[in-house]
Here is the input.
Amino acid sequence: MFKFLLLVAVAVWIYYMFRRNPAAPQEPPVRGRDVPEDMVRCAECGVHLPRSESIMSQGQFYCSDEHRRKHQG
Here is the structure.
C-alpha cells in the first residue's frame, strides 16, 4: 500500500511539474521589429504602407514607381 501511495505522489508531482508554465526565455530584441513604424498613404491609389517601403517624390508617398509615374505624368 505504501508503494502505491508513493507512486501516486510521484505521479502527481510529475504532473504539476509539467503542467506549470515556466516563463519562456525571451528573445533578444531585434532592431526595427519591435519599434512601430509610421504608415503613409499612396497619393495615387490610397493604400497605406510602411514609410520604409514607400517611394517619396515631391513630398508625396507612393506604393510603387508605376504609381509615382502615373500620378506625376
The chain is about 35% helix and 15% strand. The longest helix spans residues 2-19. The first strand starts at residue 39 and ends at 41. The chain has a mean pLDDT of 85.
